[in-house]
Amino acid sequence: MSSRLPSHRSVVVIGGGQAGLSVSYFLKQHGVDHVILEKNRIAHSWRTQRWDSFCLVTPNWQCQLPGRPYAGGEPHGFMKREEIVAYVEDYARRIEAPVEEGVAVTRLGRDARGGFVVETSEGGMTADAVVLAVSGYHTPSIPRSAERVDPAIRQIHSSAYKNAGQLPEGDVLVVGSGQSGCQIAEDLHLAGRKVHLVVGSAPRCPRVYRGRDCVDWLADLGQYDLPVDDHPLKEGVRKKANHYLTGRDGGRDIDLRRFAKEGMSLYGRLKDIDSGRLLFEDDLAKNLDGADAVYNGICGLIDKHIAEKGIDAPPGRHYEAVWRPSKALTELDPVAEGVASIVWATGFRSNWSWIDLPILDAAGYLEHRRGVTKEDGLFIIGLPWLYTWGSGRFVGVGRDAEFLSHRIDEHLLAIKPRLRAAC
């Protein structure tokens, strides 16, 4: 099989999203020959795995890819899906990234000289270093208990949701209250659909507090620069859900209690599905209270900052619950309640089975230290909390890419004697 790929590059970057492109920017600055292998198209996930009304939850000014900060006229606006795709595609063009689209990597292993062999859908090649820039969101995760749902009810994963019109008429059950689940529930609610929402332990965040977007305050407080080593949870923070809020219509809070007052039905965490009936934990009140506690904790952190710095800001008001569950709803017969569809906003599983190297810990997570693995020459970028809260976002991925580019330089310099000896 003839290959359109080069037989060898000093560095192979696997993944052509914003993380892989950021690495490419610095490799080009350092004069390192490399290629980016992208299984689909640039910005594929933004283009295909987001709903029609999707927009960023962080302000546009945080779009800070290296060498290409946001230059539009709405720094405090929120890019919509098509604008995000255009931003990433334009970035790839501007930096002249050497991207090979439509190339799926099927195996990554070692070659006889101690470098890497990269097998792909377009043939094989070798590399002296490899950067994994494919995030950790590979396979939609839907619980096996979903198989026990009445077959007449349509089920989709949140990554396949586009709009209310794609679902059959009737009530919609959304399972999961992270960012995607809450925003999809809101999208359906605003479209006039009756929504049933299964609420987990995800925290929430105010959109605007004391005259500014909370992201602006948190940036001033250094929260996006906080290293994982300095976080109270250490590496455990990588398993925590992101705060829910939205940038829709200029940005606002997401208040599940207000939705409940407007007719949305809320339930605790899903426990099981038995004979088609969904069974829930009696933890709705606890989950709502926990989310609000985080919300008010963020307000308190900002209050303290304002007081310490003597900042002139409007007065603040902490959140007070506008609704409380009168009784726990611990089960639901979806057919009897008129539920016609379920959206599983239950996240993704990682799939590293194509990597033929010992790089996973006991829990199946990629072992690394600020993106540097124990496998000499293998690096990772684009994961949440790779090093800071900003690592998985436009605002922080460039810093990670610059750091790794220096580690890659050091690696390539260190292996030069070995490569000369092999010639």
Structure description:
The chain has helices spanning 18-29, 44-48, 81-94, 179-190, 214-220, 256-261, 284-309, 394-414, 416-422, and strands at residues 8-14, 34-38, 64-65, 68-69, 99-101, 105-110, 116-120, 123-132, 139-140, 154-157, 171-175, 195-198, 208-209, 212-213, 265-267, 270-274, 277-280, 331-332, 339-344, 348-349, 378-380. It is α/β, with parallel strands linked by helices and 423 residues long. It has two domains: 8-138 and 350-422, FAD/NAD(P)-binding domain (3-Layer(bba) Sandwich), CATH 3.50.50; 141-344, FAD/NAD(P)-binding domain (3-Layer(bba) Sandwich), CATH 3.50.50.60. Strands 1, 2, 5, 6, 7, 8 and 21 form a seven-stranded mixed beta sheet that branches. A five-stranded parallel beta sheet has the order 10-19-11-12-15. Strands 16-17-18 form a three-stranded antiparallel beta sheet, with no helix packed on it. Helix 4 (179-190) links the parallel strand 11 (171-175) and strand 12. The longest helix has 26 residues, at 284-309. The mean pLDDT is 94.
Summarize this entry quickly.
This protein is an alpha/beta fold. It has helices spanning 18-29, 44-48, 81-94, 179-190, 214-220, 256-261, 284-309, 394-414, 416-422, and strands spanning 8-14, 34-38, 64-65, 68-69, 99-101, 105-110, 116-120, 123-132, 139-140, 154-157, 171-175, 195-198, 208-209, 212-213, 265-267, 270-274, 277-280, 331-332, 339-344, 348-349, 378-380.
